[in-house]
Design brief:
31% strand, 11 strands, 6 helices, alpha/beta, 233 residues, 2 domains, 3-stranded antiparallel beta sheet, 6-stranded mixed beta sheet, Rossmann fold
Length: 233
């Protein structure tokens, strides 16, 4: 379906891995106007209205979408669970601690209730590797989902099934002191191994040791340690 250049699509994300997504969409569909917004101060009703936005795609955003935006623009967020299972915060980490090896990415319309909007489509996602590797993998899946939504002008359908809600994880929950198995150690480290996330750690009264680059090796897990001195209170 041929579309006019004045159709403007926003990709809203503060994460580096979504920059490549925008560039690839520009190359594939030069007849469309693709814009990337990554700063909260740019994501305002006035700015969007001036840009003449057609749809807003939200691969990764840590802030609440204001009502005057989702009520006036078609906002489509991508959530890393098979909704309505897994509404709420920290979906990747909550999936991994529950033992999930695979999931689905749900593309849904933003409404007032968190992650409760109607679904455009879902696609499979593998949960192996570090959090950053998973996010890059998800980026490729989301790209195809955006293409399908635009090309087929998909209309969303209301969610069906039992609602299961996840709670957003806090930095304190990254502490390894309660972990009991090597599999849990590996999962805890890898699921937090991405830019902007509080790494898995252990600490004493004087130092904090954070872990990245975990690898399971038989009866042990190896990882890179980052050791810092704690600030005196």
């Amino acid at each position: 379906m041929k579309r006019m250049k004045e159709e403007t699509y926003i990709i809203l994300s503060e994460k580096k891995w979504n920059t490549q997504l925008v560039e690839r969409l520009k190359e594939k569909y030069p007849e469309l106007n693709w814009l990337h917004l990554s700063k909260r101060e740019d994501f305002t009703f006035e700015n969007l209205n001036n840009l003449g936005v057609t749809k807003i795609f939200i691969p990764h955003w840590s802030y609440i979408i204001p009502e005057n935006i989702y009520s006036n623009f078609e906002c489509i967020v991508f959530h890393m669970t098979d909704l309505p299972y897994g509404r709420g915060g920290s979906p990747l980490q909550n999936l991994i601690v529950r033992g999930h090896k695979k999931t689905k990415i749900s593309a849904l319309r933003v409404v007032k209730e968190l992650d409760a909007g109607a679904i455009y489509l879902k696609k499979d996602l593998d949960l192996s590797g570090t959090a950053e590797q998973i996010y890059f993998r998800a980026n490729n899946v989301i790209e195809k989902m955006i293409e399908q939504i635009v090309q087929e002008n998909l209309k969303p359908k209301e969610q069906e099934g039992e609602v299961v809600t996840f709670k957003r994880r806090t930095p304190e929950m990254s502490n390894l002191k309660e972990v009991k198995t090597l599999e849990q150690v590996y999962d805890m480290i890898r699921m937090l191994d991405a830019e902007g996330y509080p790494h898995a750690f252990i600490e004493t009264d004087f130092i904090k040791i954070e872990f990245v680059d975990a690898q399971p090796e038989g009866e042990k897990v190896t990882a890179k340690a980052i050791i810092t001195v704690k600030e005196k209170k």
